[in-house]
Amino acid sequence: MKAVLIRTDFSDQQAWESCRSAIDASAMAAFDVSIEQDVEILDDPDNCDITVEQLLALEETDHTFVMLADRETLASTEYPILFLDLFEDQRGATVRVASSELGEAVGNVDNGNITIEDYAAAAANAGDKNVFRGFA
Questions:
Q1: How far is CA 52 from each of CA 35, 70, 106, rounded to the nearest angstrom?
Q2: Taking the CA of residue 59 as centre, how many other CA atoms within 13 Å lie in the half-sphere pointing to its CB?
């Protein structure tokens, strides 16, 4: 099953297209494939302004995590995608991942190699409280 990236902000189409280009470039750099090889991108205005709280309220999901391209994502030229953990122990854990690191982060979180909490701790240890920009 593919990971899911939900676009929740529809206020700036040009920023969204730039974000898509950045995450595609990240996947190509990490794995030489399009991001859509491993990630289902939900680009539907019905998802406008969906919140973390709404996603956490879902009773059942087959996904262990979900990613959001929200207003904060599109407001930054780093396009930091919000990762949200939906799996039991760490349910509700979040971290933003700079689009340049997205390809590897998706693979690691999806395979259980590195948790969302691990990425959040790495960001904090690097002095980047809210955005993971790579391991030092």
A1: 23, 10, 18
A2: 0
Note the pLDDT tens digit of each residue in 61-82. Answer: 888 999 999 999 999 999 999 9
**Which residues are CB-neighbours of 92 under 8 A, at least 6 positions away?**
52, 56, 84, 85
Buried b (16+ CB within 10 A) or exposed e, 33-63: eebeebbebbeeeebeebeeeebeeeeeeeb
pTM of the model: 0.93
Confidence of residue 37 (pLDDT cuts 50, 70, 90): confident
Q: Considering only CA atoms, which of 112, 110, 133, 118 is closest in space to residue 38?
A: 110
